[in-house]
Design brief:
The protein is an alpha/beta fold. Helix content is 47%, strand content 8%. It is built from 16 helices and 8 strands. The protein has helices spanning 2-13, 24-32, 79-88, 97-114, 118-126, 163-166, 170-189, 199-216, 239-249, 257-278, 305-309, 329-335, 348-351, 354-365, 387-411, 417-436, and strands at 35-40, 128-134, 147-150, 221-224, 281-285, 318-321, 341-344, 372-373. The protein has a 5-stranded parallel sheet with strand order 4-5-6-7-8, with helices on both faces. A 3-stranded parallel sheet has the order 1-2-3. α2 (24-32) runs antiparallel to α15 (387-411) and α8 packs across α10. The chain is globular and about 65 Å long. The two termini are 16 Å apart.
Length: 440
């Protein structure tokens, strides 16, 4: 494991040696510390002939219209060649179709050789002790303690007719249909076929039992992907107004947009309160997302400040997943002042190269280092650029950026080397252990 971590770090570091050096003692600590990944979408083990895994996300993006991803994530990035070598012994210096075909065959052999232990083998390769799996369900090879479950709660906020929203664009049609399917699954788990006729019954017979079941089944947090469905400006909504809307439309009919938003706002607050009671953090997607119709300004973490300030939610911890992304990292740094707000840097370590991300990370570390969480956001992709390769790149980038940021703080006299080492351990694992009450 130690050797693997050093290799990961070295692969990412080579191109930067001439321009920026990381303090050697600090580098050693970063290399050797096993990380806890706050956000990821790993694939379960699928034996030959079994149905492909389709539970890796409540809102999969694989069929959407979307422009190419950030430059670094594209297939022509030469970094992938080094990653293939480290993971699967790739012996080529290029990515021609014929050579990539051989790579995919080598991956298939690795899956066959390791069987259901393959996902854990991947974690060992990339230096991650525990990965928080954002999935509808965990599945084969994704068992605790190496994988911990983060289920989805958005479907519980959408109990009424969603046809009005579906007509706005093709993405919404896809997303809302998936949420409706997931809500039916939650009802089936409770041995129910239809929704209760009153909001109070819906809360006590569907929402709370679903969250309690998820907690009992090992969930450490709840995931909200609401930014794919609506802006994140969850405001105050009176229960009487929410009850009236629910009662009038639970039997059918399209709900006026403003009224449905109030019901959703009320359900958001109820779910967040229950999460606090159950000791579950709320993970919120707060960054640009997939699909050409994604409303980027609607994902600003600033929209959540009213919820963060709500006295009734002070016992609920919120994690800004993806840390606001490129447009909103400064706002995220400011929101970390809130006692119940944290942020991970998942996906940003795939989107940014280490030098650029080190600047973002240093901004956070100079403000609230105890609120920053390691994360990757690995997710399914083509066979040669799947969650395994993404995990390698993300882990290496995060370690490199963390080393650059902390070395800069040492050089500028802001912190001692000993404090830098402590902060490195905090970001890689310590903050997560404290926030979620984990046993290392």
């Amino acid at each position: 494991m130690r050797v693997t971590a050093v290799v990961v770090f070295a692969l990412s570091a080579g191109a930067f040696t001439a321009r920026a050096q990381i303090d050697p003692e600090l580098a050693r600590i970063i290399e050797q510390t096993k990380a806890i990944d706050n956000h990821a979408h790993p694939l379960r083990y699928v034996a030959e002939g079994q149905k492909p895994d389709d539970e890796f996300d409540a809102l999969p993006c694989d069929t959407l219209e979307q422009a190419p991803g950030p430059l670094r994530t594209r297939p022509d990035n030469p970094e992938w060649i080094g990653i293939w070598r480290a993971l699967y012994g790739y012996a080529q210096n290029d990515a021609t179709p014929e050579h990539v075909k051989g790579l995919v065959a080598a991956k298939q052999r690795a899956v066959h050789d390791h069987g259901a232990g393959y996902p854990t083998w991947v974690l060992d390769k990339i230096g991650i002790e525990t990965m928080f799996a954002n999935r509808v369900a965990l599945g084969a090879g994704l068992e605790p303690p190496r994988f911990r479950w983060v289920p989805f709660a958005d479907a519980l906020m959408l109990p009424l007719n969603n046809d009005r929203a579906k007509r706005l664009n093709g993405d919404f049609d896809w997303f809302y249909s998936h949420e409706e399917k997931l809500l039916k699954r939650y009802l089936a788990d409770l041995h129910m076929e239809t929704l209760p006729r009153s909001l109070q019954s819906y809360l006590t017979k569907v929402v709370t039992p679903t969250l309690e079941r998820q907690k009992k089944d090992g969930a450490v947090a709840l995931k909200l992907e609401a930014a794919y469905l609506r802006p994140l400006n969850f405001g105050y909504a009176a229960e009487t107004d929410a009850e009236d809307t629910y009662a009038r439309y639970i039997r059918g009919g399209e709900v006026p947009g403003a009224e449905y938003r109030k019901l959703q706002d009320f359900l958001f607050h109820y779910i967040a309160q229950e999460a606090g009671r159950l000791g579950l953090a709320i993970h919120i997607h707060s960054a640009p997302g997939c699909g050409d119709y994604f409303l980027q300004r609607g994902a600003s973490p600033a929209m959540l400040e009213t919820a963060f300030n709500d006295p009734s939610l002070r016992k609920t911890n919120f994690v800004l997943v993806h840390g606001g992304g490129a447009p909103f990292t400064k706002m995220t740094a400011a929101l970390l002042q809130k006692p119940n707000v944290y942020a991970d840097f998942s996906f940003m370590v795939l989107e940014f190269y280490p030098r650029a991300f080190a600047e973002v990370l240093r901004d956070w570390l100079e403000s609230y280092p105890e609120k920053v969480l390691f994360g990757t956001d690995v997710s399914p992709g083509p066979p040669e650029l799947n969650w395994e390769e993404q995990g390698w790149m993300a882990a290496a980038s995060a370690r490199r950026a963390l080393g650059l940021a902390l070395t800069g703080m040492i050089t500028d006299g802001e912190i001692t080397r000993e404090r830098a080492m402590e902060m490195a351990r905090m970001v890689l694992r310590g903050n997560a252990i404290k926030l979620y009450g984990l046993k290392p």
